[in-house]
Amino acid sequence: MDKLFVIKIGGNIIDDKERLSLFLKEFAAIEEKKILVHGGGKLATRLAEDLGIQQKLLDGRRITDAETLKIVTMVYAGYINKNIIATLQSFDCNSIGLSGADGDSILAHKREHPGLDYGFVGDVDAINADLIYTLLNKNISIVFAPITHDQKGQLLNTNADTIAQEIAKGMSNIFDVELVYAFEKNGVLLNADDDKSVISKINPEYYKELKEKQRIFAGMIPKLDNAFSALKNGVNKVLIGKAENLKLLIQGSSGTAIVND
Amino acid sequence: MDKLFVIKIGGNIIDDKERLSLFLKEFAAIEEKKILVHGGGKLATRLAEDLGIQQKLLDGRRITDAETLKIVTMVYAGYINKNIIATLQSFDCNSIGLSGADGDSILAHKREHPGLDYGFVGDVDAINADLIYTLLNKNISIVFAPITHDQKGQLLNTNADTIAQEIAKGMSNIFDVELVYAFEKNGVLLNADDDKSVISKINPEYYKELKEKQRIFAGMIPKLDNAFSALKNGVNKVLIGKAENLKLLIQGSSGTAIVND
Questions:
Q1: Do B82 and A101 touch (CB under 8 A)?
Q2: Can you give the pLDDT at residue A11?
Q3: Does the beta-carbon distance from A90 to B140 stay under 8 Å?
Q4: A258/chain B closest Cα distance in angstroms
Q5: Which helix (H) or strand (E) holds A176?
Q6: In this structure, are residues B127 and B166 in contact, taking their beta carbons and an 8 Å threshold?
Q7: Distance CA A101, CA A99 (A)
Q8: What is the DSSP string of A101-130?
Q9: Tell me, what's the ipTM?
Q10: Average pLDDT, whole number, for chain A?
Q11: pTM, 2 dp
Q12: Are A110 and A68 spatial neighbours (Cβ–Cβ below 8 Å)?
């Protein structure tokens, strides 16, 4: 099976044009098939502020109301996604930017939660592996914005980590998939304050041990739980590390590898 | 050869959610292969006003400066394009929304004009017929936003009429192409004030006669010149008529048909 990298970049790097460009240059240089999933960054928040639209919070959680959805659709699927594509094209990386509505690539439903209305937030139901395969097979890399749809005409704001995971799982029948979370830290750290304390490899037994001894930063636990869930669902390896080190990260010489054994 | 409709909708209908939805329902119902090219509408202008960004004019012409480009990218390629796609998906029309940067589908260069800098405005150089064919062949309709790129990392604001024409011409080797300009009027009118005075058919000789007798509205002449240029470059027929009558228009029972003979 061909290798496929599904790479998620966090919001942080999106806001820094120079760092983003360096990251995209490394992404463009990957010879294997590849998909990028990007988050939002602070531009959407800034645009909402400039337009005088107040961020709605409910029990401390952000709510995607109609105005916020409009802004994230413009910023994520428009400004950020299209500028990433134009930059990748300049690095001779033919790529196509999609929302989940495009080609019905990511179908979702509005999140249902007893007593709490998140607004226009989507939970993923299915990905269109056939379309994704067709594009990758033509050597076109795909860049997903974190916007999906419900097939009933509604766009939905959707977590980029989840999208990356669902695509990685959904493509694992066709490709040897490695899921990469590229963010601002060097990897999973033994000591949250020491960026050099990277754990190079975590398997299920070691993860259990780390959790029992509370040697792992609480904020990393959902990411690691998701990583092991991806491994259970066909993904071959999950890599977590610094966006700027993308090349070393996918070579396995930087960051943390989450593996089954 | 299979038939392909390349349909351009004007800005006017984009601003009217209900009319747009009715138009998209008729578009979705077209059984032949189809591409939609949309303009901008007033949303970009309103957003610029809300953000306090002043429209730059030079010798009476709009200039696309960096801030304006950012806004049109957000509004055209983000908000309008993705909402059109979500709506088409709800009508069971599988469709994909692209800018010209996506899949290098429309390559352009920044307009050069002696003594006048239009800003980030693109003139089309080439379309990617292979990608367009691949998607259409998978029964995915394509919806183009009027944003292109220059392969050097720069997005460019580009006239939607021109994009429709270039795509129609560029696909005419593979398909029997009909280019449709759907706008607010019933077609090309003999009397600009009488919406019932539609000319049902114009061929080159009749066009010459209409121009000589000055029986044609001056504003229509560039559109008609473009239509005849498209016919000279492989397009089979150009149809001009009311967006709301799309079904009748493509059946030939409404609007104006521009033909070679």
A1: yes
A2: 67
A3: no
A4: 33
A5: strand A176-183
A6: yes
A7: 5
A8: TGGG-EEEEE---TT---BSBEEEEEE-HH
A9: 0.95
A10: 93
A11: 0.96
A12: no
* Dihedral sign from CA coordinates of B226, B231, B235, B237: positive
CB B1 within 8 A of CB B175: yes
Size of interface A-B (CB pairs under 8 A): 119
Answer whether B149 sits within 8 Å of A101, measured CB to CB.
no
Rounded to the nearest 5 percent, the helix, strand and coil shares of chain B are 40, 25, 35
Least confident range from A36-40, A149-153, A212-216: namely: A212-216
Alpha helix positions (H), B38-96: 43-50, 66-72, 81-90
Q: What one-character DSSP code corresponds to residue B9? A: E
Quote the pLDDT of residue B39: 87
| Tokens 């999106």 -> residue | A14
Residue that is written with structure tokens 């998909």 in the block: A35
Least confident of A17-31, A50-64, A90-104, A140-154: A50-64
Between CA A178 and CA A257 the distance in angstroms is: 10
On the 0-12 / 13-18 / 19+ scale of CB atoms within 10 A, A96 is: buried
- Chain B residues near residue A74 by CB distance under 8 angstroms: 74-75, 78-79
Does residue A214 or residue A101 have the better pLDDT? Answer: A101
CA separation for the pair B155, B107 (Å, rounded): 10
Best-predicted range by mean pLDDT among A5-14, B11-20, B167-176? B167-176
Which of B79, B101, B134 shows the shortest C-beta gap to A73? B79
Helix (H), strand (E) at residue A24: helix A17-29
CB–CB contact A78 B83 (8 Å): no
CB A47 within 8 Å of CB A75: yes
Taking contacts as CB-CB distances below 8 angstroms, the residues of chain B near A78 are 73-79, 81-82
Domains in chain A, start-ordered, CATH in brackets?
A: 3-187 (3.40.1160.10)
- Closest CB to B101 among A77, A82, A103: A82
Measure the CA dihedral A47/A52/A56/A57, to 10°: 90
Q: How many residues does chain A have?
A: 261
